[in-house]
Amino acid sequence: MAEKYHIPVKAVPPRFKPIGKSTVLDWGEGCLRCSRCVKETCPYQAFRHRTFDNSSMTDTIDSLCKNCFRCVQGCPRELVTKAANPEYKLLGDPYWTKEIISVTWQQAETGRIPVSGAGYGGPFKGPGFDSIWTDMSEIVRPTRDGIHGREYISTTVDLGRKPLFLSFNDRGEMTMPVFPLVEIPLPIILTEPSLGVGKSQVRLIMAMAAKTLNTFAVIPAEHLNDRLRPYIRHLIPQYAPGMLNSDDPLLQEARAVELWDHPNVTTEIDRLKSRYPELLISIILPATGQGADRCQALAGAGAEIIHLNADNHAQGYHDAQEKHLKDLTRQVHLRLVEAVLRDAVTLIVSGGIAMAEHVAKAIICGADAVAIDLPLLIALECRLCSHCQEGDDCPVDLGKIHERRGTQRVVNLLGAWNNQLLEVLGAMGLREVRRLRGEVGRAMFFEDLEKEIFAPLFAKPAGSEVMDRDPN
Ligand code: SF4
Ligand code: SF4
After folding, report:
1. In this protein, which residues make up the domain named 4Fe-4S ferredoxin-type (predicted)?
2. What is the pLDDT of residues 340-386, one digit of tens each?
3. Listed residues 63, 90, 117: the one ending a domain
């Protein structure tokens, strides 16, 4: 049996006090001096571990509290109360919500699956990925326990082109080309975030994290410097149209490169392949209304990896601005299935992958793997405040984070995400993530339910409008 994939997580406290959801207020006046004070029974020992943060001149309890309200309900004199933190309310935007940001901070700090003391408080359904409900019907089967290892669940995926059939000559020798294929132990690669300060330090952290996780980090080729060169086996240099020089010595060292799509990209790939047959080549293209046509054409022309990129809010570009990445991924996946090309090519999707559950949902929609960007910055304590884009100071000096500390926080985040993926796979009764690809039978889509079940149930019978207007 293959050795179990293990992500080495280790607690890394933040450099800046995270912005807590609420403030704990505890008063001493009127205290009855109970034999067992509620502050001693906090399940997260928030009162015991609280300190004073000199950099922000604040009490750290707000970031330790998990909002279970046990202390608030338990104090007989109601001396412990909680109040909303106005700074927290300003975090993020409607897509990258404050909850996503603070949960990402927790995961990067601890490497653990996040807990919410008061349970899930969000809506039952929402737009985009929130309209997909995953089938967890096997959750009660203790044998499918991915994290604790009673039954091995694989999160390994392959990057590259696979032959749809094998052919042999009379001597039993294979008569077809063997394509390069690389396995990565989790269906996630890292890619450069579109914002943030200290990009060269962030790139170094991405490269080091990719090596630790045994995956890849996509870095624009023009930024590959001497500090990144030692990590080249875990980097995917990315080239804009016309920027690839096939004499670049980098191409002999790298295992994969990524080219932005352009009309002559397949000719460029043929040229590259004739010199570097072992080099994996990914083609990145924006998720537009023509995405399915283009992906079919590229897969038919022999593409190995197609990378479909949406914007930071998981929306398509140009004529597909109103479409979500989940729908665009399904379109491409189904088109490749129809064209009998789906198993030949690897499909990676990116843009707006913000939570561990988005990884599973993108794969259910038909991706083989995802590329993540902004969560890497958030793991490094970024607040998505956009000050850097406006030329203002970064509130967390992101560019100055030490590479080892930053790497461990990114590794922690991916450790927590991988454990959540294992939980989802275990709860679905699946033993490997490859089986999840395109498995829409393992999920319910709210749009479909609304159309097929709720609409007929709640539709008014024909003629009822007339009856409404004219009860006589
Ligand atoms: S609300 Fe819960 S987690 Fe927060 S301090 Fe009180 S007991 Fe601890
Ligand atoms: S915290 Fe704000 S200023 Fe700093 S990198 Fe993040 S978005 Fe940019």
Report:
1. 21-52, 57-85
2. 999 999 999 999 999 999 999 999 999 999 999 999 999 999 999 99
3. 90
- Nearest 5°: the CA angle 102, 105, 111 is 130
Give the domain CATH number at 200. Answer: 3.20.20.70
**Cα-to-centroid distance, 374 and ligand 2 (Å):** 11
Give ligand 2 pocket residues (Cβ under 6 A): 195-197, 377, 382-388, 394-396, 398
Nearest residue to 385 via CA among 66, 90, 35:
90
What span, in angstroms and rounded, lies between the C-alpha atoms of 348 and 154?
18
Give the atom of ligand 1 at the shortest distance from the alpha carbon of 38.
7
Instruction: Choose the residue to mutate in 23, 25, 36, 65 for probing ligand 1, maximizing ligand atoms within 8 Å of C-beta.
Output: 65
* Residue from 303, 284, 334 nearest 161 by CA: 303
> What is the distance between the alpha carbons of residues 253 and 441, in angstroms, rounded to a whole number?
42
DSSP, residue by residue, 352-374: S--SHHHHHHHHHTT-SEEEE-H
Per DSSP, which regions of 232-302 are E strands?
Answer: 235-239, 256-260, 280-286
Is 220 found in the same domain as 335?
Answer: yes
Q: Is the residue at 151 inside a domain?
A: no
Distance CA 16, CA 462 (A): 62
Range of the domain at 41: 22-90
Neighbouring-strand partners of residue 445: 132
3-class secondary structure, 251: helix
Q: Nearest 5°: CA angle at 349, between 348 and 352?
A: 150
- Angle between the N-to-C axes of helices 403-428 and 199-213, in degrees from 0 to 180, rounded to the nearest 10: 50
How many Å lie between the centroid of ligand 2 and the Cα of residue 382?
5
Residue 472 has pLDDT above 50, yes or no: no
Query: Do the domain assignments include residue 121?
Result: no
Closest ligand 1 atom to 24 CA: 5
DSSP annotation of 392: P
* C-alpha to C-alpha distance for 192 and 217, rounded to whole angstroms: 8
Give the global pTM: 0.87
Contacts of 103 (CB under 8 A, 6+ apart): 114, 355
CB 148 within 8 A of CB 171: no
Quick: pLDDT tens for 86-142: 888 889 999 999 999 999 999 999 999 887 666 666 667 788 999 999 888 777 665
The rounded distance, in Å, linking the Cα atoms of 247 and 239 is: 14
How many domains does the chain divide into?
2
CB-based contacts of 369, cutoff 8 Å, min separation 6:
157, 159, 184, 187, 188, 189, 346, 347, 348, 363
